[in-house]
Amino acid sequence: MDGAFPGLGTVINIVAVLGGASLGMLAGHRLSAHVRSVVTSCLGLVTLLMAILSALDVTSPALEETVGRGVPILIVLGSLLLGGITGAVLRIEQRLESLAGLVQHWVQRFGRPTEGTGAGARERFIEGWLTASLLFCVGPLTILGSLSDGLGRGIDQLVLKSALDFFAAMAFASTFGVGVLFSVVSVALIQGMLTLVGLTLGSVVPEAHIAALTATGGLLLVGIAFRLLDIKQVPVGDLLPALVFAPVLVSIAAAVT
Questions:
Q1: Could you give the C-alpha distances from 209 to 56, 72, 103, 153, 169, in angstroms and in order?
Q2: Chain centroid to CA 64: how far?
Q3: Euclidean distance between CA atoms 174 and 178, whole angstroms
């Protein structure tokens, strides 16, 4: 399926997330607290399943061939450690909480209720935005689909991703509300930049780098799943820089092997 212009796939994805999140928010207000709790547990289990599938990319043949056997796990570990330290120093999680408060205030100012203004509501906003952003923006479909769009090779992958994201946004928004709606900002920025990379560089990201990024993102999704299931409040926000370190460490490891 050819796009009429570069970026059309991302536009379709944004519309799908907006539509799904909006429907989910409408349905969410009609659900009891017990039903929302059950839905949250279901989302946590599904997120854990998606996390495991993504994390298994650490065994990717392309990644092992590029950096050597046994090294991929060290790359993921190094990415998490460096990313976690960087995020903690930059206080990303804390800044996200402050940003959530500002967005909530802005949304309320223009007449959209966000179900409270306290710490609990702010935490729900952060979890909704962060969970949806990771689900929508980390994975082979995001990277390969956006790059293919920019390269003019079609938008089939992003159309498929949009269909999946529509239903995921509906489910998450029914529990977490407006935070999921604002994940479209993440989708627009990340997929837009990847499309621009494909448009300007004319080459795809090596499969090994995608595998490392996906595996690292999978472990961040595990942290999200733990939060949804009330197992442990993993500071996933502070771990976000790990997604930047993963492909960098692959390049370094490939250069020295």
A1: 14, 10, 34, 20, 27
A2: 25
A3: 9
HSE-CB of 80 using CA atoms within 13 angstroms: 20
Question: Helix, strand, or coil here: 101?
Answer: helix
Mutual angle of helices 140-151 and 183-201, in 10-degree steps = 50
How many other CB atoms are found less than 10 A from the CB of residue 27? 15
Copy the structure tokens of residue 82. Answer: 């460096």
- As given in the structure block, the two tokens for residue 46 are 């599904």
Element (H, E) at 225: helix 207-228
User: pLDDT of 172-229, one tens digit each?
Assistant: 888 888 888 888 998 999 999 988 887 886 565 788 988 898 899 889 888 888 988 8
Phi, psi of 34 (to 5 degrees): -65, -45
Pairwise CA distance, residues 205 & 251, whole Å: 11
Place of tokens 């046994």: 70
Q: 213-227: b or e for each residue (b if 16 or more CB lie within 10 Å)?
A: bbbbbbbbbbbbbbb
Distances (CA, A) of 114 to 24, 108, 169: 14, 7, 17
